[in-house]
Design goal:
This protein is mainly alpha-helical. It has one domain: hpI Integrase, Chain A (Orthogonal Bundle), CATH 1.10.443. The chain is built from ten helices and three strands, in the order αααβββααααααα. A three-stranded antiparallel β-sheet has the order 1-2-3. Strand 1 and strand 2 form a beta hairpin. The chain is globular. The model has no long low-confidence stretch (mean pLDDT about 85).
């Protein structure tokens, strides 16, 4: 096969999962998997990071601490020791996650998510596929929750460096690969541009006036 040029294959379309779709996915999932999906969707953590998460990595403020000079509150954070870049990082916890985490029994060196055998999950691909099918969603992967998190952060106005720091990307180029295309936001952006040109409006107005005279 030496000297034979391989044909280029189209890149796989990355999937954006919005709030409405995640709600359907969450409701369709098995009860034991719902908290896993919740953490993935609200933190952008890598699959191995949230499946291996231990309570010793979770720091909760109970009650939450009001941030001075801001309307936001500090609910705590998740500390990730073993990362792809071998750099420790901190992932803030929002109110949604806090509401679930604070109600759980916390055993210092135990896993946050435990399978039926008592140990950690090695994979939830089958459970994820089941939820997708039941929710009527297609062409999505667990990993798409990470890209969807980054996209939602970007849409909410978070600066790229903040997203990089929380998500654990080492460069803007890497982050860019994870930002998903949101058709809904694109359509809304184009709609905002759909303002008739003043001259076009004047011409239409003059045309109507002429018709009245005739």
């Amino acid at each position: 096969m030496q000297g034979v040029r391989m044909l280029k294959e189209p890149k796989k379309q990355e999937r954006y999962i919005d709030d409405e779709e995640f709600g359907r996915l969450y409701e369709a999932a098995f009860d034991n998997i719902k908290p896993v999906l919740l953490v993935a969707f609200h933190t952008g953590m890598r699959t191995e990071e949230f499946l291996s998460l231990k309570w010793s990595q979770v720091y909760l403020n109970d009650p939450p601490v009001k941030i001075v000079g801001s309307s936001a509150s500090d609910y705590g954070h998740i500390e990730i020791f073993k990362t792809k870049n071998n750099e420790r990082r901190f992932v803030p916890i929002n109110e949604t996650l806090w509401n679930w985490l604070v109600q759980q029994e916390r055993i210092e060196d135990d896993y946050v998510f435990k399978a039926s055998h008592g140990g950690r999950y090695r994979s939830i691909k089958d459970q994820f596929k089941h939820a997708l099918k039941k929710a009527g969603l297609k062409d999505a992967r667990i990993h798409d929750l990470r890209g969807s998190w980054a996209t939602r952060m970007n849409e909410k106005g978070a600066d790229p460096y903040t997203i990089m720091e929380i998500g654990g990307w080492s460069s803007l180029l890497q982050l860019q690969r994870y930002l998903r295309f949101n058709k809904k936001n694109a359509a809304e952006a184009i709609e905002r541009l759909d303002t008739p040109h003043p001259r076009h409006i004047d011409a239409k107005s003059e045309e109507r006036q002429l018709r009245k005279v005739v």
